[in-house]
Amino acid sequence: MTPKQERAFRTRTQLVLSAADAFDRQGFALASLTAISKSAGVSNGALHFHFESKEALAAAVEAEAAERMRTMVDGAARKGASALQALVDTSHAVILRLRQDVVVRAGFRLSGDAARQATHDLPEHWRQSVVRLLERAGRDGSLTSAVTPSEVAGVVTATVLGFGVLARFDSAWLASGSLSGFWKLMLPMIAAGPVERGELDCRPAVPAGARRAPAV
Questions:
Q1: Distance from C-alpha of 193 to C-alpha of 183, rounded to nearest angstrom
Q2: Residue 106: exposed, middle, or buried by beta-carbon count in 10 A (0-12, 13-18, 19+)?
Q3: What burial letters (b/e) apply to 162-188, b meaning 16+ CB within 10 Å?
Q4: What is the pLDDT along the chain (216 residues), one digit of tens a residue?
Q5: The whole model's pTM is what?
Q6: Terminal CA-to-CA distance of the chain, rounded, Å?
Q7: For a disulfide at 167, which of 31, 50, 124, 173, Cβ 3.0-4.6 Å?
Q8: Residue 143: φ, ψ to 5°
Q9: Burial class (CB in 10 A: 0-12, 13-18, 19+), 14
Q10: CA 49, CA 92: separation in Å to the nearest integer?
């Protein structure tokens, strides 16, 4: 990559980050391109060089959010986890992303913004990821036959995304471990087979090398 290409890449990246912050705080309609370019430290002309419209900029934020979600979903589960445990771990990872990553937060908000037509349906991408994990759980015997993957997927998808919506008014909804209570109630109703209910951990996965705090 030439120095000119590197500068263009950095400018584009900064514009996407600045736009994500604006869209996350204000929504699509109220976000100002002038304010976004100023926050990114570039001129309006530079912004329009990279993005022909606010819609193009929003689409770029959505695309980046979708890519970050795909990467996260692929690597969220703890090593050797059953499919049902992987679902728990992945749901906690989504909450962590929503708490820490403004691009992902903005991507989800843009996907549901009535002022525009979404280019990446992030809620649907998340639902499909949940369905895939639950179908795996059905095959590996960790999901009870009393429920279907689609039934459970609707509840899990709505709960995780609902926490994200509620967090716009109170960030405590995205606190570490906020989903643990949900899974404590949910897992006894859906877990079965060779994976005993007591072997499933409702809490977020502990990073490699870290120690789990004792339960209280």
A1: 18
A2: buried
A3: ebbeebeeeeebbeeebbeebbeebbe
A4: 787 888 889 999 999 999 999 999 999 999 999 999 999 999 999 999 999 999 999 999 999 999 999 999 988 888 888 899 999 999 999 999 999 999 999 999 999 999 998 888 999 999 999 999 999 999 988 899 999 999 999 999 999 999 999 999 999 999 978 899 999 999 999 998 656 556 789 999 865 444 444 443
A5: 0.89
A6: 53
A7: 173
A8: -105, 130
A9: middle
A10: 38
69 and 157 Cβ atoms separated by less than 8 Å: no
Q: What count of residues does the chain have?
A: 216
Q: Give the pair of three-digit tokens for residue 45.
A: 């002309």
Instruction: Look at the block and give the residue holding tokens 């728990």.
Output: 88
Look up residue 53 and give its DSSP letter: S
Q: How far apart are CA 197 and CA 194, in angstroms?
A: 9
**Given phi > 0 = left and psi -120 to 50 = alpha, else beta, which region is 102?**
alpha
Residue 113 main-chain phi, psi, to 5 deg = -80, 120
Positive or negative, the Cα torsion across 70, 49, 37, 2?
A: positive
Buried b (16+ CB within 10 A) or exposed e, 92-103: bbbbbbbbebbb
Q: Which residue has the tokens 């970050």?
A: 68
